[in-house]
Structure formats: C-alpha cells, structure tokens
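Dear all,

This email documents one entry for the complex benchmark we are building for the journal club exercise. For each entry we list the sequence lines for every component of the assembly. Then comes the predicted three-dimensional structure of the complex as a token string, followed by one or two observations. Please use this as the template for your own entries, and keep the labels exactly as they appear.
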Amino acid sequence: MDPLTPPHAAPLPPPIRRIAVDRSPTTVAAPAAATNGHGHGQPSGIVGGGRHAQRAGRAGVERMRLEDLSISYGRKLAVNRVSLPVRQGEVLALIGPSGCGKTTLLRSLNRLIELTPTASREGRIMLDDQDVDRMEVTHLRRRVTMVFQQPNPFPMSIFDNIAYGLREQGSSRPRREELEPQVIDALERAGLYGEVSENLDHPALRLSGGQQQRLCIARALAVRPEVLLLDEPASALDPRSTARIEDLLVKLRDEVAIVIVTHNLQQAFRIADHVAFMYLGELEEYAPTDQMFGAPRTQRSRDYVSGAFG
Amino acid sequence: MLGALACLVLLLIGTMVAMVLYTAWPSFRSNGLAWFGAGAPNQGQLDDIFNSPANPAAYQYELRAWPMIWGTLLTTAGAVAAALTISLLSAIFIVEFAPPRIKRVIEPVVRLLAAVPSVVYGLVGVLVLVPFVGNLLVSERRKAEVQYVVQLTGDSLLVAVLILTFMITPIMVAIMVDALRAVPRSWMEGSAALGVNRWRTIWKIGVRAARPAIVAGVVLATARAIGEAIMLAMVSGSWFAPNPLDGFTFLVEPTRPLAASIVFYLEGRTVPPLGQTLAAIAAVLLISSLFLSLAGWAAKQPLKRYGIV
C-alpha cells in the first residue's frame, strides 16, 4: 500500500451481496441526510463512518448545468428532458439500470456523443454559464475530460500517454524536460507515481488493469480540467483497484467537479455527494446521497436502491 | 493435408530461387561485383551478349548493370514516396472525414483500381502521357541541345513514376483504410476526450497504431513497383541513367529499370549467355524483395513493445 492511500481504505469490504449492503444505509445514514440536504456551507458536525463522514456540509460552486437535455439515437429517445447541476467540490453519481441513458448523458457533457453519427441533442448544457455549443469543442473537452469504462491507455510509453494531451494543446512542441513536472504531477494526483516513477518509459499497456485506469485518470487530469467525467471507471477492475480509484476520486473532488456513472450502488453510496437516479431516459430523482439511499422520494428509486430491480 | 500443401508451396519457392540463382551464376562469376557497377551503355552490352559466339568458351558476359539498377531505384523510390503520401492522406480522408455518400463511391472504386492490369495503365501512358510530355513539356530547343547524349521522346522517368504511382496507390489505400478502421475506437475516443481534434487524433493515434499495416502496404506496393515490367517497358524509354544534376530535364530523361529490361530481351533468352544474364537480373530483383521484407519487419519492431502488433 503506498502512502497516498488513506489508511481508512485499507480494510476492504468483503464481497457481500448487493441487497444486504444497499440496505445498510437506510438505517445508518438517515439522520445525516437532513443536515446534508440543507447544510450549505455549514459543517454539520454529524460524523458517519469512513469516507462518508467527509460528505457532511459540502456544496460547491456550480460548474455545469444541464437544462432540459434530451438526446436521441435516430428516433429512439435515450435521454428525456433532464436538468441537473454539476458542482465543484462534490462527486455526482449517475445511477440507474442498464440502458437508462446515464452513459449517453455523461458523453453529452463534453459533446463526445457527437462522435456517434445517429445521435442528436436538444436542450442546453452550460459550463460556467457558457453554452457548450458555442465553445470550440476541443476547448470544451480540455475543460471537461473523460475516463472510460475500459482502461484505454494509448500504445505509447507511460510518459507519452500523460504528455499526449499536453503536447497537443499548443502549437509548439515542448521538450520532455518542460513536460516532466506536469506529467509527474498528474501521475501523483492519480496516485500512480509511486508505482511507476522508475519506469516512465515503459509501455503503458504493460501495466495492470487498475494501474491502466489510474493512468487514464492521470491523463485526463494532466490537461487541468474543471470537470472530470468517469464512465463506470471501476467496472472492469478488481475490488482492490476499485477501492484505490474511489479514494482517489474522493480526494480529487475539491479540485475538479466529478461526474461518475456507476452500476454499483455501494460505490455510489461510498463516494458520491449527490446521486441522480435515471430510469428509461428520465431523471427519476436527484438528491443528496444520504437522502437517496436513506429516504428516496419516489417508489421507483426506493425499489432500485433497495435492490428490488436493476 | 494442409501442412503438405504449405510444404509444397515452400518447396516450389525454394526450387525457383535455387534455379534462378543457379542459372544466373555464370553472369555474376564472370563480372564479379562489377556487375552492379556503372560503365558502358547497357544496350550495347546486352547486344554483345546476345551476339556471343556459339562456342561456350567464348560466351560474352560483360555487363555493368548500374543504369538499370538506378532506373529501378528511381522509379520505385519516386513512385512509393508519392504513393505513400497520397494514399495515407486519402485513407485518412476516407476513414475519418469523408461523408458516407462519398465513402460509398470511393471505396469500391479504389478497390477496382487496384485490380486494373498494369498493361492497361501502360497503354494509357503510351497513348496519352508520353505524347504529352514529349510534345508539350520538353521544348524543341532542349531536345536539340541534348540530342547527342540522349533522345528526349517523352518516354521518361516522369511518366514511369506517374503511372507507377497511379498503379500502386489504390493497393496502399485499400490496405491503409482497413488498417485505420481496425484501430480500436477506444483509443480514438480517448484522444478526442482529451480535447485533441480529429486530424491530430487520427494522425497521432490512428496512424501510429496502424503503422505495422501501413508498413506492410508499403512493402507490398514497393514489391509491385520493383517487379513491374510491362508497363515500365512501354513508357520508360531506352537505356539511360537519368542524372539529377540535369535539372528539369532529369525528369524527362528515359530510363530502363531491371524488370523492363528482362521483357525487352526475352526473345533472346535461347542464347545461353543472355538467358543467364536475364536470370542474373531476376536474381537481383528476387534478393531485393527479400531485403524489402526484412526492412518491413525491422520497421515494425520499435513499436512492438508498446503493444502495437
């Protein structure tokens, strides 16, 4: 275990069946929910367990806002009139059953959805009160970077992977020495530097799956984004790597706004400050995490977070 | 069964190589390394070989093949360089930028062009390009100035390179399109998600990942260019070693590559020394294609460790 991992992450939860764990917050976290929901700016003093504790009282500046966002593939409506805020200093988790449009929603935040020829979008997405459609798409994607479900390091060395985004930013070609501090900083922020500091020139594809995914996070952080999008970043990883990435995200949320799509309700509970539950393209409920898992407003959310379907 | 067939193929190739080398040996032995050197005009030498006395002891073998080798190098290098540029850019266009409508037309056409027999291209060259170059690009004055050194008729390096380029480009485009398409989408998306534009993405990630296939395409096309005989025999003109110092005239000077030379003297093959000389030319072509494969293999090595295969 390297020094960057917080000590409380060391004992990993055993692989329990989901239903059992999903239910636990209903009893434990319910009191915190009320405080959290209205506790803007005021630390409440209520202490929960583990990472959960840090959540109390945080509500950051709004960085992105979705207004009536609808996305369809051809005729098929994938996301239907969703409005959501994305705040700095918190982790927003998008949950919902498969095919509910959460990945589509995520991909629209940096207009990556435009790579899909059939997709069309309506509604507005604002980044710092600026319509993303009015922005140069490359600038937008540098401010809102993305990490994918499958780790996808480029077939280059570790160093070149991180330096790639930096090198492509400017018209000049910075030398390696100039890039090195930024590359090392990105790797440190992603908690990978300790493991790869000796061999930055090794091929990135030789790393383990978890390391590859942290490399991808480092790559996304290297361009100093304001919002970090993650599409089920841990679904292809083992529990240990998953825990490391979760710790990382909790640590990163102060610097960047984080939006994460996850299938894993425990994960959403562990790391998110707000949770958006989507169902068949609709935003069913958007609430602080404790409230979503403790006292969901709609019947469908209640069924989903309690594991009745999914 | 399949193994036996594979062995049979290997055996056939081996026999062929052995036979060519065996037949070619007298020519190499008689000339030594000077075979590859420069010297007297090739036409005169080959005519002398053709007119050798019937007595085996008096066979003529003298040949200084450099003008032909130079011709092969020039036509091949010129055509491959041009075709690589053109085909890489068009493959990138087809894969990344072309609207679907254009894509639907371009791709079948490219594949069709790749299948056109070279003699057709040669005919187009003879009927269209050679007169164009001979009558319009070269002034009468220039022709008169150099007429005691070389006849500028329009049969030229320029036409040879142009048509050769046109011949090998479609193969390279077809191979590169397939290769670029096979680049994992996740890499391209990963790059796009970092705010890198489409051109830089396909150039830095796509072309890089597709490089082994691009190298394979270049090797294949180069092999075709080196071995192209009929078309070059039709348009490249007489024996001459074009001199780059001649400026523009360099381009319109005639040349005769190795493979085209074999075609020209094919009828004389029954004269033993000429047959052996032609075999020697063939052996050089054969060995150069072997080195080509080696070069292609070597070009792929540096990327292997990064996971590109």
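Observations: Chain B touches chain A through 23 residues (CB under 8 Å). The longest helix of chain B spans residues 272-304.
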